[in-house]
Amino acid sequence: MSSFSVTEPSNGQKWFAGILVVLYALITIMPLAWIMMTGFKTPPDSISYPPKVIFEPSLEGYVNLFTTRTRVGQEALDALPPPETWYEEIVRERDMVIAGPSKFGERFLNSVIIGFGSTFLSIVLGTLAAYAFSRFKIPLADDLLFFILSTRMMPPIAVAIPIFLMYRNLGLSDTHLGMILLYTAVNISLAVWLLKGFIDEIPREYEEAALIDGYTRFQAFYKVVLPQAATGIASTAIFCLIFSWNEYAFAVLLTSGTAQTAPPFIPTIIGVGGLDWPAVAAGATIFLLPVMVFTILLRKHLLRGITFGAVRK
Amino acid sequence: MAEVVLNDVTKSFGETVAVEGISMTIPDGAFVVLLGPTGAGKTTTLRLISGLEQLDRGEIFVGGRNVAGESPAQRDVAMVFQQYSLYPHLSVRDNLAFPLKSPILKTPADEITRKVREVAEVLQISHKLDNKATALSGGEMQRVSIGRALVRDPAIYLMDEPLSSLDAKLRTDLRVELKRIQADLGATLLYVTHDQIEAMTMATHVGVLDEGKLVQFGTPREIYETPNSLYVATRLGLPRINIVPASIFGNAPAGVTQMGLRPEHIAQGEGQEAQVKRVEHLGDQTRLHLDLQGHAITTLAIPGQQYAQGSTVKISPKNPLCFDAHGARILQGA
């Protein structure tokens, strides 16, 4: 065993790096953990001072998130039959009855449709465009690429008013299609640029071999380029999804009912019956999950090295 | 298998002329080697035949059919690239089956299995069929790459320096193997290389390229024995042909300014004195590096004879190849 190595870090360096990573993880996980905890607190616990780290968990936040409730008098309450379900029981304790389901489910579903829809569209269009830019001689290719990138140069909200007016005239306001198109338009520049980088790295020999092996250009693209671009497509998809999932400004401006996504909806909970922090936190927690699951599912594709070593450079 | 004919094939990339006016006939069942240094247009010629590049001028016929406007798939050619270019996301088996599964061939599954097994056996990669293509050594990858061409029965096999990235032993083994396979199948093969040993050992015909032009086309023996220019003469032969001014041995024929001397053109024992600079023992042969009035000459030692460094040897030309000032061959007695 050698006592000195150029490539292996020393034990001290490993410890130092380890401590840095743990510290960084703590700092980033802290707010997340706090939101998840708050979701399981009762409203009084959530605003108690000093903040409670140890508390009795309650599902009140989640019940409040998914229901609308009305306050009733003590007499009316007594006249009611005993609560049939556990969530009715929680609501009754606050002297209220469930009036019906809240709109959170619908809004969440809207987020899923619009977020994944626009991600899918951005990736499909982005991959095709990136492939064309990467492989074909396109007149003014550099200018076109710059133009595509330039759509990202100002904050999207700067064009909010023209878009608002245009959408109203086109009848796209507050529709799923309108939001999917809008988020796709914002995402596509990122998608084209990221994916072009990935496709540029895939040697042309593969497609040429496939062309000679009896496949058409599109079949070669589909059977040879796409599988190798999986890494790039996965990471691009994650970026696109995170943007359209979290987008707030356009969603507030352009949606109000049928196509409203979760981000503009969650703050409205605050307005109903006082500051219901556990319900907001519960909403945020549920809202986090799809992106988290999506990222974890695609995690293995984020690791590079799939094409490594197959072509001698 | 089919005959492939090139007629005045020309291709430029921007200002650079890559291939200029190449006309040649690759007979059915021939093993044709295109020989030339880097940038001579060898690879471009292959890519033009395969359809990966479009012609600027000229025609290509595969089996009597003008292939202008046909896609690479329609041309019915198989190609082995210089780089391994195996599909990295597929197993060795799927790599070999890939051409057979193409929409043009649509081979039935049991035939795919049979052909893949056959080719894998020939190339000795049967035990690696289920490996990922990326989990192979360089030599194995290149064998799979060759195998991917061999599973098909195309009009012509095109090979672009398929052995250049392999180590010496593997290169020799595969060279012999490739020649055997070609002879067994009676395949038409166009093979590009800058390695003269590959050209001499495998080819039925050799085409020598110089800056995009086909300067000579013939059997390896013709190219070696009767090169039509100085350039062609320097392409073949080990040790390389020695070029000396014709006047060095006195009374040169009219017009002859340069003389090409292969070892077999150098008689030892009489003539001009040359100094022995270095003696290289290669095992099967011994090379002599001589200095003849300031010109370096490399030739072979006569077996059994001792040469001391610094001693002198008398040499004279014996049926040398004669060239004019522009490097064109001048036939003696003509």
From TrEMBL, chain A:
GO terms for biological process: transmembrane transport. It is found in: Cell membrane. The chain crosses the membrane at residues 15-36, 112-133, 145-167, 179-199, 220-245, 277-298. CDD domains: TM_PBP2. Belongs to the binding-protein-dependent transport system permease family. PROSITE patterns: ABC_TM1 (PS50928). Keywords: Cell membrane, Membrane, Transmembrane, Transmembrane helix, Transport. This is ABC transporter permease. The keyword Zinc-finger does not apply.
Automatic annotation (TrEMBL), chain B:
Transmembrane segments: none annotated. One of its GO terms (cellular component) is ATP-binding cassette (ABC) transporter complex, substrate-binding subunit-containing. InterPro entries: AAA+_ATPase (IPR003593), ABC_transporter-like_ATP-bd (IPR003439), ABC_transporter-like_CS (IPR017871), ABC_transpr_MalK-like (IPR015855), ABC_transpr_MalK/UgpC-like (IPR047641), Mo/tungstate-bd_C_term_dom (IPR008995), NA-bd_OB-fold (IPR012340), P-loop_NTPase (IPR027417). The keyword RNA-binding does not apply. One of its GO terms (biological process) is carbohydrate transport. Pfam families: ABC_tran, TOBE_2. One of its GO terms (molecular function) is ATP binding. Residues 4-236 form the ABC transporter domain. Signal peptide: none annotated. SUPFAM superfamilies: MOP-like, P-loop containing nucleoside triphosphate hydrolases. Keywords: ATP-binding, Nucleotide-binding, Transport. This is ABC transporter ATP-binding protein. The lineage of its organism: Bacteria, Pseudomonadati, Pseudomonadota, Alphaproteobacteria, Rhodobacterales.
